[in-house]
């Protein structure tokens, strides 16, 4: 009997294999299906009609043609001359700018008294400003900051054009202490590339509202290049498509930075020094005094942003999520999505190598520098899946003089947050890993003097002589830090909350991308997540209950069939 | 007799079910790459060029770009296309298996998943080839051997440059094109 069964099964297997082969062959011989009609597509780059509230419409409402102002019909020789002309009408503008972080590069953290701002913090990109003023201040909203003795009270030192240029021709070059090129010059030095002089009159006569391009001139290029620092800010946002950012979509809503970072008296809200971890304030209303951050998602979308009557249960569940999950977590599935890879690590310890006595660079497979004598080793990545963490808006920095952890990883900034404090949400972040110099005696981070003023020969500048000792000594002197002469490199991490590059809603994370054991939130602690978390004994009870129910149904049904047959028989 | 027939039917059912559930997994392979998307692609491209046996690069496609163009998002995917006339010629010259030209050129997909890791997806050429007779089985067996050479990731070697096809693409999928091969 068993032999018959086996024979039958073998025949079945053979027949099955035969059937599969025949099926595949038939499939292969099927006539080709008629081609489907191609979906209608909008021509790439084609301009859609401006949406209500778009920048185009706002620009059309401008009431002043600056080219008609006599004050601006001058042959300006320098930026401060332009500012003087601007201030003849905008009398309070410079005073307002003087009060902002964009001018002072200082911020006093009210939570812990730490002095932050570019003037005081040290990061693991180009590190810090002291000793490198003329280079770094290419991104200062002022002119002439080339050393520690800068005149912060001068109104004509305020640079109006860097934020209000609409021509795209106004560029402040590193090394010029915040000035643009007033005459044609070779830049970078010894590169052979010529930068033309800026036409200050033309730029001044065409000033307008800030734009993605003006803000991006610094914020897209932070850390020494396009996309390097933030991960969610790069030049792809100058003219982004919908997939990259639904709000800034150039053919759609076309938000400028200022649409969300709504400015009052030149003070721009929204800062990584005081991020809003959890905004419970709801939407901002016209006429209502509201000092909360206008750049949060909730300030427009409210606390229950998900709408829809058809799937009410799902909508309610999604809105429940907003209690613990930042909007960005689901709606920014990856950062660096604009085909501009962001820098993910920077190892200063390998900087200074020479080839045939000369500095050199090495490129990675995608053509980006993976090594440069002046900076060390880097790694880049695009479409990066973020890390996730609780964030309540409190942050503490490791500043110059603070101790580092030579045997582990030192956090350049530590964002606080937890599931229990009631003030946190789970946020996506970029974690940038570095290796940078520290003093072996004081055990604190050191500032390398990297760049000199344009055209100045400086033996202590690392980018000129590649000598760490001299560069660190000069950096420490400028920063007012002691330096014993002995140094090493320490691993560091810096955290950057991700909040730009908001994808269309249909590209938000799906449930299982988090609700699974190896999902995106697998490392986030303090919260029970169905699909991710579980107790084996509870699972067993569940399975036993399910199997018991099935067995009961089968037994009951079988018994009834049996008894019915018996009765009929 | 009834029991033999029942066993036969059960055998077919079991085979069918097994084939249904396992076929997809058997026909394609997936492995994690220790490198980023571009570097993985570049290393595969250079391995292909170093393999010999008539292999040439015939394209590099970026299907993710097409999704972006349509306003959507997807994680990066790059498809390396390679072809060897040494292997394609005998198949293209045999009318009975010429339809297998739809499998040409040979493709290797490099993509990122939601866990942030980079994966390499390949066709199981050896197994697939066996399904189409001795000629195809023999050719695809050799392709499978070469395919293993394409996927060698030697971290001691420096990252080679990505080879971007010079010729324009064919549109859909973006970034295709390039000459050579089939």
In short:
Chain A is an alpha+beta fold and 569 residues long. Chain A has 16 helices and 14 strands.
How would you describe the overall organization of this protein?
The complex is a heterodimer of chains A (569) and B (182). With 569 residues, chain A is of the alpha+beta class. Helices cover 26% and strands 12% of the residues of chain A. Chain A has helices spanning 2-29, 55-60, 79-87, 93-98, 101-104, 133-136, 161-164, 200-205, 212-219, 257-260, 298-301, 312-321, 327-331, 462-465, 468-479, 536-568, and strands at 107-108, 115-116, 185-186, 194-195, 342-347, 361-363, 369-372, 376-381, 387-391, 395-397, 409-411, 413-415, 425-439, 487-497. In chain A, the strands form 4 sheets. In chain A, strands 5, 6, 7, 8, 9, 11, 13 and 14 form an 8-stranded mixed sheet that branches. A two-stranded antiparallel ribbon of chain A has the order 1-2. In chain A, a hairpin with a 7-residue loop joins strand 3 and strand 4. The longest helix of chain A is centred in the last third of the chain and has 33 residues, at 536-568. Chain B has 6 helices and 5 strands, in the order H-E-H-E-H-E-H-E-E-H-H. Chain B has a single domain (27-182), classed as 2-Layer Sandwich (TATA-Binding Protein), CATH 3.30.310.70. In chain B, helix 2 packs across helix 6 and helix 4 runs antiparallel to helix 6. With 182 residues, chain B is an alpha+beta fold. Chains A and B meet through helix 1 and strand 8 of A and helix 1, helix 2 and helix 3 of B.
């Amino acid at each position: 009997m068993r032999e018959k069964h086996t024979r039958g099964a073998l025949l079945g297997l053979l027949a099955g294999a035969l059937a599969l082969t025949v099926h595949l062959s038939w499939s292969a011989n099927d006539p080709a299906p008629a081609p489907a009609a191609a979906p209608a597509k909008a021509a790439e780059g084609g301009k859609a009609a401006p949406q209500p509230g778009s920048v185009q419409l706002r620009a059309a409402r401008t009431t002043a043609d600056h080219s008609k102002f006599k004050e601006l019909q001058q042959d300006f020789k320098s930026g401060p001359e332009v500012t003087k002309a601007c201030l003849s009408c905008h009398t309070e503008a410079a005073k307002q700018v003087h009060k902002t972080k964009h001018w002072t590069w200082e911020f006093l953290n009210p939570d812990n008294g730490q002095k932050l701002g570019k003037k005081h913090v040290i990061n693991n990109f180009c590190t810090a400003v002291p000793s490198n003023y003329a280079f770094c201040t290419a991104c200062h909203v002022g002119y002439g900051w080339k050393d520690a003795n800068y005149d912060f009270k001068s109104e004509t030192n305020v640079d109006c054009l860097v934020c209000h240029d609409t021509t795209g021709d106004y560029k402040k070059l590193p090394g010029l202490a915040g000035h643009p090129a007033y005459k044609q010059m070779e830049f970078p030095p010894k590169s052979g590339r010529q930068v033309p002089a800026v036409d200050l009159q033309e730029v001044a006569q065409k000033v307008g509202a800030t734009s993605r391009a003006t803000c991006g001139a610094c914020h897209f290029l932070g850390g020494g290049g396009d996309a390097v620092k933030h991960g969610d800010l790069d030049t792809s946002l100058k003219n982004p498509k919908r997939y990259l950012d639904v709000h800034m979509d150039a053919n759609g809503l076309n938000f400028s930075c200022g649409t969300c970072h709504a400015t009052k008296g030149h003070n721009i809200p929204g800062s990584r020094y005081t991020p809003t971890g959890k905004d419970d304030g709801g939407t901002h209303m016209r006429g209502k005094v509201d000092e909360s951050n206008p750049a949060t998602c909730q300030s427009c979308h409210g606390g229950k942003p998900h709408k829809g009557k058809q799937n009410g249960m799902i909508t309610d569940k999604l809105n429940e999520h907003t209690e613990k999950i930042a909007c960005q977590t689901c709606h920014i599935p990856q950062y660096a999505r604009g085909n501009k890879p962001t820098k993910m690590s920077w190892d200063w310890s390998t900087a200074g190598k020479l080839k045939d006595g000369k500095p050199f660079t090495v490129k990675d497979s995608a053509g980006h520098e993976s090594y440069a004598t002046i900076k060390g080793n880097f790694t880049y990545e695009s479409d990066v899946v973020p890390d996730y963490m609780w964030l309540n808006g409190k942050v503490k920095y490791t500043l110059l003089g603070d101790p580092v952890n030579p045997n582990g990883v030192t956090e350049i900034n530590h964002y606080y947050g937890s599931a229990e404090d009631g003030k946190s949400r789970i946020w996506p972040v970029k974690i940038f890993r570095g290796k940078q110099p520290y003093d072996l005696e004081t055990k604190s981070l050191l500032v390398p003097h990297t760049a000199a003023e344009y055209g100045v020969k400086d033996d202590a500048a690392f980018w000129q002589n590649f000598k760490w000792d001299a560069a660190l000594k000069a950096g420490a002197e400028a920063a007012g830090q002691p330096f014993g002469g002995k140094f090493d490199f320490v691993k560091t991490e810096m955290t950057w909350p991700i909040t730009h590059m908001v994808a269309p809603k249909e590209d938000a994370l799906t449930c299982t991308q988090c609700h699974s054991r190896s999902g995106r939130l697998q490392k986030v602690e303090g919260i029970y997540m169905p699909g991710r978390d579980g107790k084996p004994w509870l699972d067993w009870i569940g399975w036993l209950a399910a199997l018991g129910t099935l067995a009961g149904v089968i037994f009951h049904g079988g018994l009834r069939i049996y008894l019915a047959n018996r009765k009929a028989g | 007799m009834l029991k033999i027939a029942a066993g036969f039917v059960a055998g077919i059912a079991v085979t069918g079910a097994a084939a249904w559930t396992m076929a997809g997994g058997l026909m394609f392979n997936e492995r994690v790459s220790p490198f980023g998307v571009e570097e993985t692609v570049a290393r595969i491209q250079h391995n292909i060029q170093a393999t010999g046996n008539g292999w040439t690069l015939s394209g590099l496609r970026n299907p993710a770009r097409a999704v972006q163009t349509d306003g959507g998002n997807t994680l990066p995917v790059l498809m390396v296309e390679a072809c060897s006339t040494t292997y394609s010629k005998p198949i293209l010259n045999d009318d009975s298996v010429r339809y297998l030209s739809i499998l040409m050129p040979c493709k290797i997909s490099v993509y990122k998943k939601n866990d942030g890791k980079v994966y390499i997806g390949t066709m199981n050429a050896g197994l697939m080839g066996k399904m189409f007779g001795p000629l195809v089985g023999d050719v695809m067996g050799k392709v499978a051997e070469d395919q293993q050479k394409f996927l060698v990731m030697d971290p001691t070697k420096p990252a080679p440059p990505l080879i971007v096809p010079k010729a324009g693409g064919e549109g859909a999928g973006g970034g295709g094109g390039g000459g050579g091969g089939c």
